[in-house]
Amino acid sequence: MSKSTHLAHRIQNLQPSAIRELLKHSKMPGVISLAGGIPSQELFDKEGLAQATQMVVDKNFNDAFQYGLTEGNVELRQQLVGLCRERGITTNPDQLLITSGSQQALDLLIRALANPGDVFVVERPTYLATLQILSLTEARVQSVGGDEHGMIVDELEALLKTTRIKCVYLVPTFGNPSGTTLSAERREKLVKLAIEHDFIIIEDDPYGAISFTEERQKTLFQVAAEMGNHENVVYTSTFSKILAPGLRVGWVILPEWMKQKVAIVKQATDLHANSFSQSLVAAYLTLGRLNPQIALIRDVYKQKCLSLSRYLQEELGEHISFNQPQGGMFLWAQFRYEFDTTKWLQQTLEKGVVYVPGEFFFSDNADKKTLRFSYATATEEQLYEAVQRLKSAL
Amino acid sequence: MSKSTHLAHRIQNLQPSAIRELLKHSKMPGVISLAGGIPSQELFDKEGLAQATQMVVDKNFNDAFQYGLTEGNVELRQQLVGLCRERGITTNPDQLLITSGSQQALDLLIRALANPGDVFVVERPTYLATLQILSLTEARVQSVGGDEHGMIVDELEALLKTTRIKCVYLVPTFGNPSGTTLSAERREKLVKLAIEHDFIIIEDDPYGAISFTEERQKTLFQVAAEMGNHENVVYTSTFSKILAPGLRVGWVILPEWMKQKVAIVKQATDLHANSFSQSLVAAYLTLGRLNPQIALIRDVYKQKCLSLSRYLQEELGEHISFNQPQGGMFLWAQFRYEFDTTKWLQQTLEKGVVYVPGEFFFSDNADKKTLRFSYATATEEQLYEAVQRLKSAL
């Protein structure tokens, strides 16, 4: 019997997930993966995490194993207020909702916002899992181009002349996959447009803390707050890249008008985030180890990024170009001539190296000569070897 | 500015969640809660859970803190094959997907299945969070009545004469809220109808292991398998009621044709279930402590259930009637005369006791004289006192 009629039509046309396939490849013996946005587990703060785990078992046992509040562990939300303050964000525990990683924050927000036909705008290229979430809704997706200063906000402004926009989704700092950071000027303009045209900005900020320099852009949330606006920007971040992704702890700062709606979706989805993880992160934050841990991650990723950039420049510079990332986990590159990086993957795999082909990061007008490298997981030696293998696959 | 246009229309008309309000009440000092389906934390296997946690930190550190597979921890899925076998279910790790509690299994399944206009059938009464999930889709919900033998399958058969049904959702064993168990005869008939009319059965089984007798009904999954059918029944269960809900670990057994679709939704939703919790449960299962733990829960809940039943019968028997539960966590009762249990809640709250008014468990034709008591959390003394307070509120 054919089961095709049993499937939600919204997921009918999805292609098999590239990431899933790549993860399989990247676990093959001898293959060097520059694909996943996976933190280097050599950098896990084993001592601090073990200590926090012990604290939970000793002092917070019942909270950690029992049902909790939909909005999340109160102690963790209080701690997060301080962490947000370090990022220039003024908030309070009541505005926060703890999510199962920031991936879930995106899913909850989009489910709470997307009515059939609503226009969601993404960057070109953008985070592919957000495209997956959007494909499960009946929203319409439009895209706006980017350059080395992030989303081209003038293009968005032009689009607004003809189109009512519900929501703009972006990773404004050390973007995934682009690695770029939205300039101060564009941040201001984007927020002004959001206020003027009353659309929501989802500011996805998993990487902002992983800066390779001392330069900091204000979050869009802060830019809006400084304009007196507390309704149009929704900020989300996560402990996945700065502490440990397996804990699945992220958070979202919700405008007053969205709080109850998102809580209702959260409750329907999985009741609340993992109690044990939340207690564990709350305990960890009391140890004062997070900032040294982030400093370590910044140093190590910066070195790896510099190395990968150098090898690519030296060995493949005549074939590909890229902007030097100033933070985050990704180096976004493009061939200097027409090229299909999806097809090429088969060849590089044979040589023992994988990346993510660029086309999966586009909602439309995919640029097939682009590709994303992550330098987070591989060792220095592997980065060197990976580039050699890429070269040999040309 | 009005933000109402920003909200997904599907959540526009949801009432504030009754459960959320009740949880607030039930935490007021002195209030005895018979409301939530919350396991008694006095029954948590502290020693075993602490031991398993230590095993994870010592032996599985990287798996516990790193990203994992969308389908879930391989070791846990292997263990679950054995656990399912004890429930009469033959499966293999490839058919299993680990979810963030069985709540998420329901959300994933409904999202993967529900096209606009599709008919989902629930019991009357049914689990209220499933109604919440359905209200976030554009599926149509219809209901079929129940009696002391569970869903009245003849009513479903009658409905099938006029209506194409996509999916039937039910808690066939120690139902929430009804406490009833679907009879063997109806199980067989329901599965036959599913095969004949090609609809999906979602078999939600969080309580099946918590039986107060040695009697066992076959799962619908098993009934179908014995008819040679492996496509129409989706089985989901959880560790929330037998181990610890804060871990948010549930699982679903997927027919071949649904595996990839559900995995795609899972990935978009939160990438994968909490790695730490999955490692912890897998470690716990190696200790051989789960079955003694379940035996303890069965004994304690049985005693509490008998006590609550006796007090209700003795003190309120002229006002309310109920069927004696044979397992699970809930006693479903109804007034013997017209009565509004939602309004009454205000009065019982003043006397210091809360329950869940029955009307929230109905998709339509709510029976306002019904109410749900949970005996799982309160002590024996509290159960006695609670009934006295209920009486004084009449």
TrEMBL record, chains A, B:
<dbReference type="GO" id="GO:0030170">
    <property type="term" value="F:pyridoxal phosphate binding"/>
</dbReference>
<dbReference type="InterPro" id="IPR015424">
    <property type="entry name" value="PyrdxlP-dep_Trfase"/>
</dbReference>
<protein>
    <submittedName>
        <fullName>PLP-dependent aminotransferase family protein</fullName>
    </submittedName>
</protein>
<dbReference type="Pfam" id="PF00155">
    <property type="entry name" value="Aminotran_1_2"/>
</dbReference>
<dbReference type="InterPro" id="IPR015421">
    <property type="entry name" value="PyrdxlP-dep_Trfase_major"/>
</dbReference>
<keyword id="KW-0808">Transferase</keyword>
<comment type="similarity">
    <text>Belongs to the class-I pyridoxal-phosphate-dependent aminotransferase family.</text>
</comment>
<dbReference type="InterPro" id="IPR004839">
    <property type="entry name" value="Aminotransferase_I/II_large"/>
</dbReference>
<dbReference type="GO" id="GO:0008483">
    <property type="term" value="F:transaminase activity"/>
</dbReference>
<dbReference type="GO" id="GO:1901605">
    <property type="term" value="P:alpha-amino acid metabolic process"/>
</dbReference>
<keyword id="KW-0663">Pyridoxal phosphate</keyword>
<dbReference type="InterPro" id="IPR050859">
    <property type="entry name" value="Class-I_PLP-dep_aminotransf"/>
</dbReference>
<feature type="domain" description="Aminotransferase class I/classII large">
    <location>
        <begin position="55"/>
        <end position="390"/>
    </location>
</feature>
<comment type="subunit">
    <text>Homodimer.</text>
</comment>
<keyword id="KW-0032">Aminotransferase</keyword>
<dbReference type="InterPro" id="IPR015422">
    <property type="entry name" value="PyrdxlP-dep_Trfase_small"/>
</dbReference>
